[in-house]
Amino acid sequence: MGGKWRVNSGTGKVSDVAGDSQRLQFSFQANALPWVLPPEAAKGYAMTKAGHKMSNERLVISGLEPGRYDLSIGGVKVGTYAHTQLAAKIELQANQVTPQYKQALVVAQLNKERNEKAIHPLRNTWAQLRNKFTRPGKLGTDEYKEFRITFDKNVASLNQLAAKYEDKIYAANQPHNLQYEIAPVDE
User: Which residues lie below 8 Å from residue 62, measured CB to CB, with a gap of 6+?
Assistant: First the structure.
């Protein structure tokens, strides 16, 4: 508008906007990372359109001169699009090349590892306690005390491991301020 780009977002903070009719640059600090799942869940994620419905990370750029444009985020080329595609909308949440996707994948992998190494074993440990008291011939007092000492140690250790993973997850899930650049394809 009036020779200047107007950039806005409802899902983060835009700053440092610059450009002309063929180029656009801006910084974007997202409120959250896109929803990314480990690769083994990718088929279900795609089939249900989960990213589109629950984590839509879209980019719309109107006003570019006709042509094809490279989109770079954080200095990484993430795709090439026609000006008409950019004006209509592109969705980035499932673009595995974007820095934010890669960061979110690290978080997803940490959460998967937390579940495998801490949460599932913790649930199994609690199931052992339940099973000790629901089967015929319940434990005697001494046997219960011995079992309970081991049980309490295991629960404390697994809870501590889960907490360490949670700290890693929360440290890794903070969105970075990323530089976006749209520029004509060099031919």
Answer: 86, 87
Beta partners for residue 33, in sequence order: none
Share of residues in the chain with pLDDT > 70 (%): 91
- What CA–CA distances, in Å, run from 78 to 67, 96, 97, 111? 17, 8, 6, 26
pLDDT of residue 136: 54
The pLDDT confidence band at residue 52, using thresholds 50, 70 and 90, is: low
Cα–chain-centroid distance for residue 95?
12
Q: What residue ranges do the domains of the chain occupy?
A: 12-94+175-184, 103-172
**Could you give the angle at the alpha carbon of 106 between the alpha carbons of 104 and 107, nearest 5°?**
65
Query: Which of 169, 154, 150 shows the shortest CA–CA distance to 123?
Result: 154
164, pLDDT greater than 70: yes
The pLDDT of 120-133, averaged and rounded, is: 88
Distances, alpha carbon 31 to alpha carbons 67, 119, 177, in Å: 31, 28, 10
Extended beta strands in 5-161, E state = 12-19, 24-30, 58-59, 68-73, 76-82, 90-91
DSSP classification of residue 174? S
**Pairwise CA distance, residues 94 & 111, whole Å:** 18
Element (H, E) at 22: none
